[in-house]
Amino acid sequence: MNSSLGWRLARPITVTAPLGTVMNATHPAAVNGRTSTCQRAADLVIGALAQAAPERCIAAGNGSCATASFAGADPKDGHLWVYLETIGGGSGARARKDGLDGVHVHMINTSNLPVEALEVEYLLTVLRYELVDGSCGGMGLRRVYRAEAECHLRLGRRSGCLVCGGRQAIRSRSARNRPPTPIRPSRNSSHERCRHPRRCTSCAPARPP
């Protein structure tokens, strides 16, 4: 619609995405969810604008969204459950201010699920949920989980990039504390299995100022 505000804002912008590129893939190219690609595209646009007006642009944020996916069956009644956590981080610093602490950036807008609600609904316990001081830009997030029953676990990592020549922030990290006895993965899944008291730690730091 020519009368919409969105159309007026987009009028001076031209998007070129040649067929067969990562932004306009063709079969049989492997593709995934839009999140990581869109996050990178947003950082690229901001990086290009920073060359013209660096004082008006933010640095790169916390990159592609980190995830922790849990799936299992309740040992009491066999009820299947799945939980996907998207973990935010710090937004890029501004010219004269730090970035925002513990937020999602660009394409990611999922809400902050309260720990109390998570623990009531799923067989998980959150041992730590905190800001990571000194992670640069806006402070990142740290979440530590404990699985209270056998489950499958999949972690999605991320990395960021520099914008405006800023210095590198602490990179994100995901770790598993494995149980004493090794657990063989399921034949039908590449996901590793976790069992109490295995813990999953995901750090989501900020990107450079």
Task: Please provide a written account of the structure.
The chain is 14% helix and 25% strand. By secondary structure, the protein is α+β, with helices and mostly antiparallel strands. The chain has one domain. Strands 2-1-5-7 form a four-stranded antiparallel sheet, with no helix packed on it. Strands 3-4-8-6 form a four-stranded antiparallel sheet, covered by helices on one side. The longest helix is centred in the first third of the chain and has 17 residues, at 34-50.
Question: Could you give a quick summary of the protein structure above?
Answer:
This protein has helices spanning 5-10, 34-50, 115-121, and strands spanning 66-73, 80-87, 124-132, 140-147, 151-156, 173-177, 192-194, 199-204.
Helical content (DSSP H or I, runs of 4+): 10-25%
The overall pLDDT average reads 75
Tell me the number of structural domains.
1
Indicate the structural class: alpha+beta
Q: Work out the radius of gyration.
A: 20 Å
% residues in beta strands: 25-35%
Total number of β-strand segments?
Answer: 8
